[in-house]
Amino acid sequence: MNDRGEQMQGSKTVHRLECNVDWPPGNVAAYFVDCAEPILFDAGMAGETAREELTDDLAPHGHEFADIEHLVVTHPHTDHIGQVQAVVDAADPELYAPASVRGRFERDPKSLETTVRTNAQAAGVQGEYLDDAVEMSVESLERDSSLLPSEAVDHWLGRGETIDVGPLTIETVHTPGHQADHLCYLADLGDERVLFSGDMALGTFRPVAMHTGFDEGYEDAIGAFYTALDRLAERDVDRVFTGHDAPHTAFADRVEHDRESLNRLLGRTREALETGSGSTAVDIAFQRSGDRNMEYLVIETASALAHLDGEGVLTSETDEHGVRRYEVV
Predict the structure, then answer these.
(1) CA distances from 233 to 164, 175, 264 (A)
(2) Which of the residues 22, 124, 272, 324 could staple to 280 if both were Cys, CB 3.0 to 4.6 A apart?
(3) How far apart are CA 221 and CA 225, in angstroms?
């Protein structure tokens, strides 16, 4: 493995392509499998700069977008589907995406507004911040559904499915929690079993448990994340091609790291309630935030509180303003 994330196995070579992003760790990766029918896993960040970065990374290997015959998407976040349309326009590849994305993109924006407003308000988001949370959710739906147009998808992939993608046979592993539709892809490259992991099993950090944002099902984010880790732990993986860190071979360690991180999240959430640091998701997220993005921490904290509530560790009630307040049993 060299510093550019290249792994050669027989007639297949994996090249790491990188785009810059404005949030930690400052980059997002896509992976180009140079083989008889070239495959791209994920499609980088949106925007002209990202497009140039991907094409510049492909060029030294003698390839361009027009050479891509298969494009496989792990999940519908902007930094992973940003150049889907550019690749489709250049190459008209076979496009593969998680099947549940289709229904999510058909979500009625008005219904989404109502649901997000109710759930964000319950978390303690107020005033202009509440309006911003609702607006951000609707804008994300509209943006992401345009970046990954449903009519361009040729293959909607199920959970636990095995499918041939050109010369690769891949197994889909449903790994929700960070994002509800997230799929990882297992494949054999010569004598190595590899995982194209998107935002799972990263090398240096656990991704935030955003799951559905403040849409329906947000309460399930933490439990879903644990389920995803259980599914990954059952697999034998030699090398991980991640969406944000360098490829690595510490698969089992990273899965266990993420599990321990979730355990700490739940423990610190309960501790904050016990010490009187607050009674709402906003209160507790503020204690955690530091220089991190408060919006996503509120979502994750609300999910942690709901998880603990469901386990009977906490009790909660909703006040006259629609805010849910928690206390330790």
Answers:
(1) 23, 11, 19
(2) 124
(3) 6
**In the chain, where the domains are located:** 7-105+149-269
CB atoms within 10 A of CB 264: 12
**Residues 116 and 137: beta-carbon distance below 8 Å:** yes
pLDDT digits (tens, 9 = 90+) for 240-270: 999 999 999 999 999 999 999 999 999 999 9
Query: How far, in Å, are 116, 129, 194 from residue 124 at the CA level?
Result: 12, 10, 42
DSSP 160-210: T-EEEETTEEEEEEE--SSBTT-EEEEEEETTEEEEEEETSS-SS-PPP--
Cβ pair 293, 300 in contact under 8 A: no
Confidence of residue 295 (pLDDT cuts 50, 70, 90): confident
One-letter amino acid of 192? E
The pLDDT of residue 18 is above 50 = yes
This prediction's pTM: 0.95
Quick one: three-class SS letters along the chain?
Answer: CCCCCCEEECCEEEEEEEEECCCCCCEEEEEEEECCCCEEECCCCCCHHHHHHHHHHHHHHCCCHHHCCEEECCCCCHHHHCCHHHHHHHHCCEEEEECHHHHHHCCCHHHHHHHHHHHHHHCCCCHHHHHHHHHHHHHHHHHHHHHCCHHHCCEEECCCCEEEECCEEEEEEECCCCECCCEEEEEEECCEEEEEEECCCCCCCCCCCCECCCCCCHHHHHHHHHHHHHHHHCCCCCEEEECCCCCECCHHHHHHHHHHHHHHHHHHHHHHHHCCCCCCHHHHHHHHHCCCCHHHHHHHHHHHHHHHHHCCCEEEEECCCCCEEEEEC
Q: Does domain 7-105+149-269 have CATH number 3.60.15.10?
A: yes
Q: Is the pLDDT of residue 9 over 70?
A: no
